[in-house]
Amino acid sequence: MGMTPAARLARLTDGYVVTQLLWVAAELRIADALADGPRTAEELATQVGADAGVLRRVLRGLAAEEVLEDLPDGRFALTATGRLLRDGVEGSQRGAVLARGGLYYGALAGLLDAVRDGGVPFERVHGRTFFDHLDAHPAESARFQGSMAVRAAREAAAVVEAYDFRRFRTLVDVGGGTGVLLAAILRAAPGVSAVLFDRPEVVRDAQVPHVGGDFFAEVPAGAEAYVLSRVIHDWSDADAVAILRTVRRAIPDTGTLLLVEAVLPARAADDPAAVRMDVHILTLLGGQERTAAEFAVLLDAAGFRLDRVLPTGPGSGVHVLVARTAPDRDDRSA
Ligand SMILES: C[S@@+](CC[C@H](N)C(=O)[O-])C[C@H]1O[C@@H](n2cnc3c(N)ncnc32)[C@H](O)[C@@H]1O
């Protein structure tokens, strides 16, 4: 039987509690502590260093959401959902939970003010931009990059499955983070000569060839393909066009631009995960997820033409948008 509207609304309203229950479990590595079998709250409290009485209430809260199972003998066991809170397992979401329950959660306190008066919720709360905040907090930055890396690994597998990179000899991954997508591309297309480009402090320790810099200023020139994965959605239309123009200056006229992004559906309920990601981006960066038509407009403004929009595997959350260079605007109007 479906929930009544009242029960559904009450549950949605308490979503803030669930986020924190999951965050506490992820911080304390509760799922890893349960990997070898069910434990009592007391056993877990000793193992992870917690107050048994408070921990029991948190564990019960997680059991109410079927993240854990409360067994008749008083022990708690992992469910298939709870297993995904473990570190390093296939499909682990621990990094995403750590980011959401910590850094993102605090930023949402600025949402109402931003809705009323504009601006970015994160900046209203912290007084500086998300990336400036990360620069000043290396531990949080490492944690954010870790969360991005897990998501990127899942997406990367789907992207190289959906798009054949063996057609290129040279490629630059712009804003490529720690190089997860690029590593997957190089595994799928070992003949490609590729460069990872991101902020200097991000690429410093990358295991692939890399260049540090600012994509508003300049990116490595002359490659056959430029990939921007989950970059454009961080930015306003004006900033996105500025980044794409930097790429346009670097790319040969025969080049291919590949955007890896969520594509917003026409109706929100058709892809709730993409719509939720749009709210995350709004909260942290003031950027936005976009529909295919909106991407086409940005690309056009930067001297590209959107050619194809390829879905990737089910549940991956991203599409590959394939664009080509368009004749220079001045040439066209001449
Ligand atoms: C949302 S992450 C996406 C990372 C990766 N491409 C992925 O798909 O997981 C955006 C990336 O843009 C990088 N970035 C932000 N500002 C930048 C700038 N001005 N120049 C170069 N990279 C920048 C960040 O360091 C970050 O790695």
From TrEMBL:
One Pfam family it belongs to: Methyltransf_2
Gene3D superfamilies assigned: 1.10.287.1350, Vaccinia Virus protein VP39, Winged helix-like DNA-binding domain superfamily/Winged helix DNA-binding domain
Domain O-methyltransferase C-terminal residue range list: 111-305
Keyword Transferase included in the entry's annotation: yes
UniProt keyword list: Methyltransferase, S-adenosyl-L-methionine, Transferase
Gene Ontology BP annotations: methylation
InterPro entries in alphabetical order: COMT-like (IPR016461), COMT_C (IPR001077), COMT_dimerisation (IPR012967), SAM-dependent_MTases_sf (IPR029063), WH-like_DNA-bd_sf (IPR036388), WH_DNA-bd_sf (IPR036390)
Domain O-methyltransferase dimerisation: start-end pairs: 11-85
Catalytic residues as annotated in Swiss-Prot or TrEMBL: 233 (proton acceptor)
GO terms for MF: O-methyltransferase activity; protein dimerization activity
Keyword Nuclease: no
PANTHER family for this protein: O-METHYLTRANSFERASE CICE, PUTATIVE (AFU_ORTHOLOGUE AFUA_4G14580)-RELATED
Designated name of the protein: Methyltransferase family protein
